[in-house]
Specification:
Elements: H1 27-38, E1 58-60, E2 65-67, E3 70-72, E4 77-79, H2 95-109, H3 118-138, H4 147-153, H5 159-176, H6 187-191, H7 196-223, H8 231-250, H9 257-268, H10 275-290, H11 295-310, H12 317-321, H13 328-331, H14 361-381, H15 386-410, H16 416-425, H17 435-458, H18 470-483, H19 490-497, H20 502-510, H21 512-516, H22 543-547, H23 555-567, H24 578-591, H25 597-618, H26 652-656, H27 662-679
Helix pairs in contact: 3-4, 3-5, 4-5, 5-8, 7-8, 7-9, 8-9, 8-10, 9-10, 9-11, 11-15, 15-16, 16-18, 17-18, 18-20, 18-23, 23-25, 24-25, 25-27
GO molecular function: chromatin binding
Function: Required for synthesis of 60S ribosomal subunits and the transport of pre-ribosomes from the nucleoplasm to the cytoplasm.
Domain CCAAT-binding factor: 474-666
């Protein structure tokens, strides 16, 4: 039996009146009745009538937190659900939905436009920073946690807000930093039971150190962009360097001092000279002058020497001149070299052995504890001990001499003047064992200057090279060589070490005539003068560069210092031979005819002093009847004594009597009177 096929209703039944053939209803009326009743049909499926399930964002509520301002309700965190991939078997896979999701993602990736203008951001930051700063200043121990709010502003995209934040933190830390160094807390101390006040103080100190460390890190990051092409970043770096300099000068005893010094040393390692560079130099000079115990100065000198060595001494001259501001120049009394420091002979190197006092084990333990407590008290009181200061200054002196000697060996042109001036200033602190090496280096330097001078005479110097004052360098070498012997036993040193001082005397004699022709003889680094239109632009120093130049003495002053060391040595005044005195006296009178007015007066004054002390030895230059020997005077001889000065007369005096300056005329008359008095 075949199954019965089910019949499906295609359209609902239309309630129509029974067929009345008698009335005769037409088919058109049936169609109109069909469409009239179609509006009430329910043709939608059931799932279309169900309400849709919208995706709701889940929220996680958080408990309130307690701050210094009270209980604060935390904002609920919204948990975003990851959208399902269209290609996943769990997704619908409709292309339309995938396109809509991609459009939504692109809209989300677009950065939000800030609704607050930069001006409003600055005003709001000022109000917030002022409020936090006032709270911390009123009660630092209670509101020390507010420092974290300041660190948030330091990461702002607005450069002005960052600069305001750095300056505000500087003012706050200067006010709340204590007068002692905060040491880290050990694990054993953390386990100890403390009173409420001690615990509060410890929390304040640790919070202060943590916030200050973050502030120093922010200064370090910002200062690295000094001299950047981006002006906004460079302005922030300038503010950071100013803050670091202020902290180093006001609170040099506090923690992370080495990080602040590293900021300054990093800027000084770049030869680009700008206001930030001069600011760092002035900060280090102030630190060296005001440092009493020498700890900060020793750390700064150590970092500077390491930086110079890593840069192969390719630094600016002002960096090396900071060593001339160290307090050891006036306080330290022991002589030193690059390896060791001498002590006074009266100081016993080894203590005499004393009779040992019997103590029990308990007493020895108690004494050790007492010594430890006393040491902590001394560190807390920041008392300066002479032993510690001498030790620091001794180490600094070794580092300075090592730097000077290495520069002399490498012959760095732009640092020769600074090194020679520094050696002359530190001459009274140099060990005798170090003399031979230094004088040999100075001798080689003078020989090199002579070779360079001959090369310049043969051909013009290249315009791209840095200008060098060769005459000035040679005079500095001579001054340094004789300054090393001042305050020492010269006869003993020269005899034992075989020091060749005749070389420097001969070189000084040969440089007198060329020096008198120098047009800049009376000009120094601080002298105001116009630029040479035909010369190199680097020859004229800028005002800021001249301000920080230590060696500001004129060439005339350097020449007088050299001549005084040769003709009027303070240790053995009577040991100068007559031939040397006569040769120099004749040469000085000759160059006085070409010297400017002030330099000529200075030479006349020096000759008057020589005539007062050594008048009998040079009187033969004025009185021919007292001469011994014959020959011809040759002022261009390489040997001073070989020039035969007693074979000539000082005819220059007759010309100087008619000099345009009345002081010069009076000086030559006074000189001749001194010679007459010396004969009587």
């Amino acid at each position: 039996m075949a199954p019965i096929a089910k019949r499906r209703r295609i359209s609902p039944e239309v309630e129509s009146p029974p067929a009345n053939t008698a009335n005769g209803v037409s088919s058109e009326e049936k169609i109109e009745d069909f469409y009239r009743n179609a509006a009430g049909w329910d043709l939608e499926q059931d799932y279309e009538n169900r309400p849709r399930n919208l995706k709701k964002k889940k929220e996680e509520t958080r408990l309130p937190i307690k701050t210094s301002e009270g209980w604060v309700e935390q904002a609920p965190a919204v948990v975003e659900q990851k959208e399902e991939d269209a290609d996943s078997f769990l997704g619908s896979g409709d292309e339309g939905e995938a396109v809509e999701d991609d459009e939504d993602d692109e809209e989300d990736e677009q950065p939000e436009v800030p609704q607050i203008s930069p001006r409003e951001q600055i005003l709001q930051a000022k109000e917030e920073l002022a409020r936090v700063a006032s709270m911390i200043s009123e009660d630092p121990e209670e509101h020390i946690g507010q420092l974290k709010k300041l660190q948030v502003h330091a990461t702002s995209q607005n450069r002005t807000v960052v600069k305001l934040c750095l300056a505000t933190q500087l003012a706050i830390y200067r006010d709340i930093i204590p007068g002692y160094r905060i040491r880290p807390v050990s694990k054993e101390e953390l386990k100890q039971k403390l009173s409420k006040d001690v615990r509060k103080l410890r929390n304040f100190e640790q919070s202060l150190v943590g916030g200050y460390h973050e502030y120093v890190k922010a200064l370090t990051r910002a200062a690295k962009k000094s001299g950047d092409k981006n002006k906004e970043a460079a302005s922030v770096a300038s503010v950071a360097i100013s803050c670091a300099c202020t902290l180093l000068n006001t609170v040099p005893h506090f923690n992370f001092r080495g990080d602040l010094i590293n900021i300054l040393v990093g800027r000084l390692s770049i030869r680009q000279v700008n206001p930030d560079f001069h600011k760092c130099v002035e900060c280090l000079e102030t630190l060296f002058r005001d440092d009493e115990d020498g700890n900060a100065s020793r750390e700064a000198v150590d970092l500077l020497c390491k930086m110079m060595k890593s840069r192969s001494y390719n630094i600016h001259e002002s960096v090396l001149n900071t060593f001339l501001h160290l307090r050891l120049l006036s306080e330290f009394a022991h002589r030193s070299s690059s390896t060791r420091t001498d002590k006074d002979e009266d100081e016993p190197s080894v203590k005499q052995k004393q009779k040992r006092e019997f103590r029990t084990k308990k007493e020895r333990k108690r004494l050790r504890e007492v010594k430890g407590v006393e040491k902590e008290f001394r560190e807390a009181d920041a008392t300066v001990s002479h032993e510690e200061r001498d030790k620091n200054q001794s180490e600094m002196l070794k580092l300075v001499f090592v730097a000077y000697f290495r520069i002399l060996k490498q012959r760095v042109p732009q640092l020769m003047g600074a090194v020679l001036e520094g050696l002359a200033r530190y001459a009274h602190l140099i060990n005798q064992d170090f003399f031979g090496d230094i004088l040999e280096a100075l001798r080689e330097l003078v020989i090199n200057t002579e070779a360079a001078e001959q090369a310049l005479a043969e051909e013009d110097e290249d315009a791209s090279t840095a200008p060098r004052n060769i005459n000035r360098e040679s005079l500095l070498c001579i001054i340094t060589a004789f300054a090393l012997l001042q305050g020492q036993d010269v006869v003993k040193i020269v005899g034992s070490l075989h020091l060749d001082l005749e070389f420097f005397i001969t070189h000084l004699y040969k440089t007198l005539l060329p020096s008198s022709m120098n047009p800049d003889l009376e000009l120094s680094a601080k002298s105001l003068r116009l630029r040479d239109p035909d010369g190199n632009d680097d020859e004229a120093l800028l005002p800021q560069q001249a301000k920080h130049k230590i060696n500001v003495q004129t060439t005339t002053v350097l020449l007088l210092r050299s001549l005084s060391s040769v003709l009027l040595p303070p240790q053995n005044l009577r040991s100068v031979p007559p031939l040397r005195l006569a040769a120099f006296a004749k040469q000085l009178l000759t160059i006085s005819l070409q010297l400017p007015e002030k330099s000529c007066l200075a030479m006349m004054g020096l000759l008057q002093q020589v005539a007062k002390v050594q008048g009998k030895k040079i009187a033969a230059l004025w009185y021919t009847e007292e001469r011994k020997g014959d020959g011809v005077f040759n002022p261009l001889r390489d040997e001073v004594e070989g020039s035969n000065p007693f074979a000539t007369t000082v005819w220059e005096g007759e010309l100087l009597r008619h000099h345009f300056c009345p002081q010069v005329r009076e000086s030559i008359v006074a000189l001749e009177k001194g010679i007459v008095r010396s004969r009587s």
